[in-house]
TrEMBL record:
Keywords: Hydrolase, Membrane, Protease, Serine protease, Transmembrane, Transmembrane helix. It is found in: Membrane. GO terms for cellular component: Golgi apparatus; membrane. This is RHOMBOID-like protein.
Length: 389
């Protein structure tokens, strides 16, 4: 919100005209006639306070468009009719979706996602493909996945960009996504991971820390704090369901929470009022930020740098964080009688006799016979995934 301060109008001067009459006598020789001058007030000049101005949100819509474009390209690369035995919405041609048993989100195969840059820990460690820690944030597993994430990004991201500008919110989004990918890679090393959820949770974390560090300038702050905490808790609770990468959510939230103290700090109102006061007003010596804001800024920056550095070193050394935390896997999935948390990738044994393809799933022992001549490796992998689910 823009705050405006009036500048004092300059004092108006009254002009005096002196009429001199020559040749007169006595005291009436020189007569002074005051002339009335209109004293209309000078125009008031307003100055916008840049620390609280509204920005035009354009970066977040660009992020949404980029994610949609990447999903379309992924579906083009997937080419379900060529690489799979059966497809959903085959009328869409190469943009048709994988079978529901293989991908219930209406999306591509895991092979296509790997080609496009999904987070695959083995490739990050052994093939030095660290760029996957960033690229995976721009990919999605299906139509339902991208719709949920992009709607959330528009609701949360546009408001933040209007308040703090594209530079700070853009950095908050990208770095939070990286932090989420890093924690996911340390704990979930057997499956691939995609999605912008880590970056989205980073925005939520930034909103929470922004409320805390700028606590004194908000009205109804307690209600806002409770509401935001409840929203975050509900979203994190959803992450305990199977096939949801809650470690990316937690890592993104923690990164965004620390970044919020660094990027989203606001100066106190007293300092702003003095900075934009008109000339002549008395000024007191006020600090730009409160002491607790400076402490949070320093501590958060140190924790952020140390955390990301240590995590990256551990990942590149091939450390499996589950070996050091036996219960942490429950943060991503809690097994119940209704679902299992087994996350092992699908492995199958296949044999071909003429046009008969026999596939046996190694994890559950199921076997099936398919009439398929000269199947491709991607077709066999798709059938294997369906059989092992």
């Amino acid at each position: 919100m823009a705050t405006l301060e009036k500048e004092r109008p300059p004092k108006s001067e009254v002009l005096i005209r002196v009429n001199s009459t020559r040749g007169g006598s006595g005291s009436g020789g020189n007569t002074i006639h005051p002339v009335e001058v209109s004293t209309a007030p000078a125009p008031v000049a307003y100055r916008e306070i840049t620390h609280f101005k509204k920005w035009v949100a354009w970066l977040i819509p660009c992020f949404v468009i980029a994610n949609i474009v990447m999903f379309i390209i992924t579906m083009y690369v997937n080419n379900c009719p060529k690489n799979s035995v059966s497809c959903v919405a085959r009328s869409l041609g190469r943009f048709s979706f994988q079978p529901f048993k293989e991908n219930p989100l209406l999306g591509p195969s895991s092979i296509a996602l790997q080609k496009m840059g999904a987070l695959d820990v083995s490739r990050v460690i052994h093939k030095h493909q660290g760029w996957r820690l960033l690229s995976c944030n721009w990919l999605h597993g299906g139509v339902f996945h991208i719709l949920a994430n992009m709607l959330s990004l528009l609701v949360i991201g546009i408001r933040l960009e209007q308040e703090f500008g594209f530079v700070r919110i853009g950095l908050l989004y990208v770095i939070s996504g990286f932090g989420g990918s890093l924690l996911s890679a340390l704990f979930l090393q057997s499956n691939i991971s995609v999605g912008a959820s880590g970056a989205l949770f980073g925005l939520l974390g930034g909103m929470l820390s922004e409320l805390i560090t700028n606590w004194t300038i908000y009205a109804n702050k307690a209600a806002a704090f409770v509401t935001l905490v409840v929203i975050i808790a509900i979203n994190l609770a959803v992450g305990i369901l199977p096939h949801v990468d809650n470690f990316a959510h937690i890592g993104g939230f923690a990164t965004g929470f620390l970044l919020g103290f660094v990027f989203l700090i606001r100066p106190q109102f007293g300092w702003v009022r003095e900075r934009y006061a008109a000339p002549g007003y008395s000024r007191l010596s006020r600090s730009k930020f409160k002491m607790y804001q400076c402490i949070l800024w320093v501590v958060s920056l140190i924790l952020l740098i140390v955390g990301l550095t240590v995590g990256l070193v551990m990942l590149l050394r091939g450390v499996d964080a589950n070996d050091h935390c036996s219960w942490c896997h429950y943060l991503s999935c809690v097994p119940t009688s209704r679902w299992s948390c087994r996350t092992e990738p699908a492995y199958c044994l296949s044999s071909q006799i003429g046009s008969q393809l026999n596939i046996t799933c190694s994890s559950n022992g199921k076997s099936s016979l398919y009439m398929l001549a000269n199947p491709s490796s991607s077709q066999i992998q798709g059938l294997c995934t369906e059989l092992c689910r």
